């Protein structure tokens, strides 16, 4: 179900256990070879494919919110980013718009690494604010955490998602190849680094990469992209299926 | 120029006087006969048409931000709205993303009545914050203020823009007729009222309309919609042309 | 009724439909020829005259709040201004002080252009916050919007209110001529400009006027001032009469 | 010097060591026998008398800000109060309006007990914010702390300032006797209590007094009021004299 | 009772009139001769001694919160301070954690001068927020206000508490003499100054003292320290006894 | 180096690359069998042991901040928690106190699961705020992420850290056995659940556990506790060693 295309009386008549899905992504620099809208285009494609599947009939999809938490990319012009606290508020507001009408199941499906921590912080805050509503199911899922492509797809160079990397570039080659510009084979690898693991290190993109990508864009192919879309789509769909079939109470989903 | 499709080095190379246009709209109830995404669809069509015109080559368009200031519609489920102060912050952030890189000309092109006051408040705040940058041109324009359809188009019932009204319904019939649902001829007129004029009255939609529309949807036709799109498109394009050709200093645009 | 002179038990005994009027103005630069308190003095005189009329017996007047939203004048020393968000909060607080006791009708009567957008924003926020109180009548009125002097008074040079202009200077000549300083005939006209119309442009006073006035002070006379006071007083009184006699529900006032 | 009556070029020409005085008071319940504007009227009279003295020529007086920190009186209708944090912001803004132009000496002269802690908190915050400006002199003075009436005036029943008490009622009898209503001799004493001394106890007026006064209004006379005004006026004037003649650096004033 | 050592079911079973004591201090510069933790060590010792007394059995002690409102000391490195508003929020949160479970008696026992105004501001705000809970007893007490050592202890040089002064240095010599460093006899007196009395002056430590102490550290002895601890401990214990035995309503404690 | 015991001139003389360690934990419910201070006691012991090691000579340790982000435990009385945004501000303030003096390396060493997301959010915000300081190393590390006990210690029942669980109870038995109350063998296991993995689910403790623990306390022994302390201490020490020996720039630590 597409929220955008419904009238309000139709929404008013929905069961309050209907899962509401908010796709959230970003508009931010993706190196010299990929467009600013990369995260939104890729998540948009994952969501488009999920909507072809049976689970889509049981879930209400909001339009993709392309404004993300991207201050770490602001040194590169063109990036649009909500301030960190504003982004927390924005996610809260989206959820509260439905919580106010008694809906109980909310999921942010995320396509941008910088949104992961804020979406958890926002859901933590929301759960506390509505602590007495025991039936709330407040979830976030970053799409590339929904599956393990390396266990399924042969030939991937990277072991994890980077930024404007083999994986993202491959997926863009699948859906919008004309937006991948320049000589890809000449784009040098930028290593992932440890990033303070097993802890966390605060960072901006210039701390990690001068051109703006992280990983191995030169290894990208449209075939890998198609395989990645299939794997991620299946993962997200399975997650929403679990959410839909859940009893609504308790910790397990 | 489409911001979404550019790479960051391309944006970095743009002249700092390039106007940046942020289309802003809403996802909110539009009565029993129109979809929640009405404002975003209509503004999106105006912008799409503007992009066909010569001025578009001199302007950088951000993607449409569909989350608006719609708390007055929150009684009707499905409406998504940023809290009033969060919306002010969001507009500020969008502008600052570019102001931080030295760009000087920002315009919000708006397609939702509830965004008008906040966009003025946000621009007021921004101008004060950057008071020492004398070359800033910070503008907002609601598209239906960009032209006077009644002086041009024959047969219009309404004298001004309402909500899910003759004008909006007509435009939707032009671009997405399948999203206009029910028997339009049976949708009764909801009068505009005075609304506290010549002052202002704080309101929520149930103060004004039980079904959620204001005006005369039954008078809508696809032909009127096409005429309205043409008039509004021309008005917005002319405004952007003025913005583009302006010297950048002083009060006149 | 003068709130300032009442005891609290008298206020406690008032009908909850009693309109509460908050006069709001500013203390800000008014060019080289007019005092900082111009807006407060002029609105104070309008209110003083309204209090002579019958409607005053049905309305409770708070003292004039002279601190306004005047950051756009801060480049000129002496201006006192609340920060934009603080001003929104201040207006909210004033209204809530009475809303908390069940009063339902609040009006800001405004004498400063910079307060117009914030008073609308504040009333919007208040209406949403108390969305379930269907009997609220939350109004703002800028006094020069309450009448059309050009249709009534002969000889006015300006078509609209400026700043430290023909109209304001005339009114000051009527009530406090000793506070109009310097050779008025030598004060050159500062044109209004378009200001981004039909859109809005964020501005500070140095964007528009170096001396600090906008319009034609040299055209001011005490006679014009008296005529303006009469017209505006009648307009404000008529508005309060409408507010007083209103049923309290619905959009019309 | 009256800020309200000056033009901005006159303010711009003042020495930056000119002390700026902000009189701050309240509009809040003062029992069954005294008007809501008591604090503002009394401080206004103190300031009016100070302005007759030589020190007034060296000091710039802002108009009295009647909106105070009065939430502890909000149970009694008619009270107007800024929210606690908004009041801190309002005081900060007033000071910053002048600090931004290089002025260095600011004093809040206060006539309301509820403003004492906030004015100290606000000055603390301001001093830290502008920590590198070593010449700042940021002061607050509550007028009844500026003198010790019991050591000077014979016949006072109270040892300290209360609320709508012997002292305040006496002063009101001096300047506006018609605003003291009812049979004063029948107003019973409300004892001061310990209030958690030598610590502090958070309170609202109903914690301390049902009618709204604290102290002994029945002991009030206009003669005592005149004597109190003289003592307090002298105290405030002496304080401003110290402020004016101070070198500007260091802890002593 | 030590909150830290209890399990939650034990706390859940406590009478709601049990006083909750929050010791609050600071980690901030204390001159060249005293450690950063001085305030926390000294208050900790006062609290440790109070816990030996009978009243301790009727009171629940939270652990000492060492992070204080110390921005006025931030010019000296090592100082840790919450921002002024954050400190207000932190105190509010501590109290609300217990207010939310129906507890009614809260006391901040304070060991840092910079916390005095904020603790009063925080309690003021809390009392207003929970204005309808008439049984709340919200208190703060700075330990050196709980007694008058000069009236009891012979030989004290100072008349009041300073900073890293005779009194504090004496107390440190009593409990942790190894943390008093350098040649104490060579530490010169820094006079108290008037500090804007009888008003208040916003300050940072460099406004008052270059080395960071105020008062006469050279006069410190361990014997004076022991005497001071005894006097202050008795004062705090007596205050808590009053709090414990109070009826809970009304202004007196 | 113990920050608490130093004087400010000693801190002022430290190299700006000295790592500053802020231990952060919580005071919150830990089931029926463990005290509220569990997290703080356990992290305190880890830090105490780290301080015995050579790395401690190169690092400056702040005192443990026991107030954590524990709103998810607030249903159980006794829990003390900063509001979510206040906790973000508090962490920011701690770091900024040192950043303001030019220090470049900050690490939060964390002993409470609820602090993990906020510490990352806070560091993200800090890094953006000081984006132009390229030498900043802003880190957080939760102590149980610093090692993999299951790969080293035989006999552990749990595979990961729970709450008041086998691991935490074991460690408490090692250092403060008298604070483990009741019949441990009778404490039933509370399973971990999926918690929305591979996504995140907003939760409060009653969503997961009625008694307040998660995991298998009955499996706890003091021997396991000692082994866990050794493993975690080594892990934290190794991390600080990496931090100390790092060049300061770049993503790797």
From TrEMBL, chains A, B, C, D, E, F:
Signal peptide: none annotated. Pfam families: Creatininase. Its cofactor is Zn(2+). GO terms for biological process: riboflavin biosynthetic process. Keywords: Hydrolase, Metal-binding, Zinc. SUPFAM superfamilies: Creatininase. One of its GO terms (molecular function) is metal ion binding. Belongs to the creatininase superfamily. This is Creatininase. It comes from Limnoglobus roseus.
